[in-house]
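Input (structure):
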């Protein structure tokens, strides 16, 4: 971890949310001698299913999951989709599949072109490098160097389950080349995933950046601390107010949760500055509950607007997955692979020649990912087709003024028909892989889902509507920019119109990156810390 001497001048910084980005911001400030209080709604990260990666499915609907659900999706047969999000020290990094993907350099050049100076690939590439402790070889051409000395372990060298070798051969059989490092000079191709693990166990940014400081008494961390709202006075943030009363009233908190046991104190915590890192679903809700957001909407739900920022809660978007599940009829699939991940390969692929970068990122699991409506044999595996350049945009809206009022999450899945077509191409490719020799002949692979041939586009559409799900990469709801719909200033991450308040998490992305969003969220955390410490 980089330690920086900077002038602390007795200021108190409150960081809201001990997730991917918040842990980096809080840890970096505290390591530099600042007085920091880190507030986390969830509890301690002691559930063994957090560190043992193959058990990550146990965390869904658990005390560590906010357990959010979308509103019925108009363009996907009215389905309601579960959105797990981390509510625990470590945030969503404690629940995720641990995959480390920087994204495509063009993603960040697009951010810069959209008015976010300082966020182009040439700006953020070195930040990724500083974060990483990568165990693989450097990129052959060294255009995008990999980091070797950073605080985040990025591991490509782990025990493989044999099915993944055959999945790579199946991808090659349908024309996708093997790529040894998708975080290096080229993203396209089929690859082994790089994981944020240390000695085979999950390692979150909380573990790397904050835990050692807690042990050294250099930071205050409060768990079960659900921030109700920010306190604003004279155009500046002056503190935060915690939920008062029974924490079980709060959306998503169940009686057995650690957060529920710590009854909301209603404490007011004074702060000279507040860094909001509650993630793409909660940061906009906290802003809106505090009177910062679209004024008309706030009045509708009984909140007096303080700053009219129409972009808060807009621009919600997500990546999508669609499963192809196959039974292995001639060999046993090793499901637990000791302590290793149940997902070890993915591929980046362009659905058509018009794409300037991959628009699909299928991901593979050595287990059958049956949803609640599906049943089938246990000796099976999943080739999830995946869309990672979505055009559809949705919103997050409140239904009332308090954290007890459930919010409405509406990603507008398939509202833009181009999303369906990219996902269709990825889905057809996954089905072709199941039929290719390395899987069909060597494993006796036979499709379980979809259940039939799907001879027409209508039948394909029906399966897509019935089985499409989230890739867990919601972003964009407090996006950076300088236009009237922007929420934060790209140069400082300060919220437009409020002094002393910044947002530093996945919500600031103007567009989602091409790939999983944990590494980009960590990069945002590190950039935010550098801004606060005067390092850039
Ligand atoms: C199931 C799942 C699998 C995923 N798989 C991957 C993957 O393999 N690779 C990858 O790159 N990405 C993955 N992601 C996405 C990635 O984890 C997120 O993009 C990233 O963690 C977002 O970081 P963040 O800092 O914005 O928010 P988070 O890490 O979600 O942190 C937000 C924190 O704020 C806290 N908080 C929220 N509201 C309040 C409040 N009112 N008061 C106090 N605290 C509050 C939350 O409890 C949480 O700890 C996955 C996500 C999920 C959920």
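Output (sequence):
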């Amino acid at each position: 971890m980089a330690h920086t001497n900077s002038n602390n001048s007795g200021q108190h910084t409150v960081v809201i949310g001990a997730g991917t980005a918040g842990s980096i911001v809080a840890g970096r400030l505290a390591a530099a001698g600042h007085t920091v209080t880190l507030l986390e709604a969830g509890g301690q990260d002691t559930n063994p299913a957090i560190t043992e990666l193959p058990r990550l499915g146990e965390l869904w609907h658990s005390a560590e999951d906010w357990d959010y659900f979308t509103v019925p999706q108009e363009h996907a047969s009215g389905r309601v989709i579960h959105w797990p999000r981390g509510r625990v020290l470590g945030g969503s990094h404690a629940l995720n599949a641990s995959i480390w993907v920087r994204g495509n350099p063009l993603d960040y050049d697009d951010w810069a072109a959209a008015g976010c100076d300082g966020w182009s690939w040439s700006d953020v590439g070195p930040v990724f490098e500083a974060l990483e402790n990568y165990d693989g070889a450097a990129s052959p051409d060294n255009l995008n160097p990999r980091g070797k000395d950073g605080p985040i372990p990025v591991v490509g060298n782990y025990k493989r389950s044999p099915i993944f070798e055959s999945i790579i051969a199946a991808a090659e059989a349908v024309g996708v080349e093997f790529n040894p490092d998708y975080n290096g000079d080229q993203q396209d191709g089929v690859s082994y995933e790089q994981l944020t693990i240390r000695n085979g166990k999950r390692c979150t940014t909380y573990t790397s950046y904050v835990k050692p400081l807690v042990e050294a008494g250099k930071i205050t961390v409060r768990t079960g601390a659900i921030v109700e709202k920010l306190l604003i006075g004279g155009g500046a943030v002056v503190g935060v107010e915690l939920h008062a009363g029974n924490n079980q009233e709060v959306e998503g908190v169940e009686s057995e949760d650690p957060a529920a046991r710590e009854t909301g104190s209603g404490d007011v915590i004074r702060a000279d500055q507040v860094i909001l890192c509650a993630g793409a679903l909660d940061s906009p809700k906290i802003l809106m509950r505090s009177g910062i957001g679209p004024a008309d909407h706030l009045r509708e739900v009984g909140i007096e607007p303080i700053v009219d920022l129409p972009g808060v809660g807009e621009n919600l978007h997500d990546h999508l997955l669609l499963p192809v599940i196959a039974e292995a009829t001639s060999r046993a699939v090793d499901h637990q692979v000791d302590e290793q991940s149940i997902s070890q390969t993915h591929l980046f692929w362009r659905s058509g020649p018009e794409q300037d970068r991959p628009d699909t990122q299928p991901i593979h699991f050595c287990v059958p990912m049956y949803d609640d409506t599906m049943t089938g044999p246990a000796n099976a595996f999943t080739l999830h087709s995946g869309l990672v350049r979505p055009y559809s945009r949705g919103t997050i809206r409140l239904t009332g003024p308090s954290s007890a009022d459930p919010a409405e999450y509406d990603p507008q899945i398939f509202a833009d028909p181009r999303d369906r077509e990219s996902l269709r191409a990825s889905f057809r490719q996954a089905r072709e892989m199941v039929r290719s020799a390395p899987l069909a002949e060597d494993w006796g692979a036979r499709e379980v889902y979809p259940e039939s041939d799907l001879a027409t586009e209508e039948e394909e559409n029906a399966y897509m509507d019935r089985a499409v799900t989230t890739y867990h990469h919601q972003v964009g709801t407090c996006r950076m920019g300088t236009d009237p719909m922007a929420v934060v200033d790209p140069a400082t991450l300060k919220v437009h119109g409020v002094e002393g308040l910044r947002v530093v998490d996945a919500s600031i992305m103007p567009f989602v990156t091409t790939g999983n969003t944990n590494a980009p969220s960590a990069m945002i955390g590190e950039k935010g810390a550098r801004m606060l410490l005067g390092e850039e």
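Notes: The two ends are 17 Å apart (CA to CA). The CA atoms of residues 280 and 439 lie 38 Å apart.
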